[in-house]
Amino acid sequence: MEPHPMTADDLALRHFGHDDLPEIRQTLIDVHADVHAANMGDEFRQKFPWFVDHWGGNPGFSCVIAYDGNEPAGFAYGAPAKPGAETWRDYLDPAPHRSRTFSFSELMVREKWRKTGLSGRLVRELMDNRDDDLAVLLVDVTHPKVQALYESWGFHKVGERQPFADSPLYAVMLAELPLPQTKGAR
């Protein structure tokens, strides 16, 4: 009999917040380094610890890490956007009536756990209990499959932005919360 293929449901998900950053900071950095091992020479990729500290420094920081036993398989995190400074505001006029926004900053899944449904499970776990009205994220425009995946979860592109001189050009994607129930984001 063949072994049961691993699915995202086989992994344990743990929630963390702002006060947990000292405990999880290195885990996030290590998973990022593993996921981007081929391009860690890129100056922008090397700034990831700064982004962890930036987002984790927000009192509303929320993070979900998936574990296979004690081994981190992936994570998703973000924090509430500062009212009036949300990245979608440059593209939507008038602004949505309900506009409290969660900035979904990172989603990373290590190679061994890709194509198991883990990305959707992490997104769902991070977003399902939020009381924000909207979620916004940035996706590198050179990754159309990633953009399509987010679209399958209810996000839609509202514009493009390059937030830093050395960063990629990103699609600004927005979704109303709660996300629609879809097969791909269980």
UniProtKB/TrEMBL annotation:
InterPro entries: Acyl_CoA_acyltransferase, GNAT_dom
All copies of domain N-acetyltransferase, residue ranges: 11-176
GO molecular function terms noted in the UniProt entry: acyltransferase activity, transferring groups other than amino-acyl groups
Sorted UniProt keywords: Transferase
Protein name: Acetyltransferase
Organism, as annotated: Streptomyces nanshensis
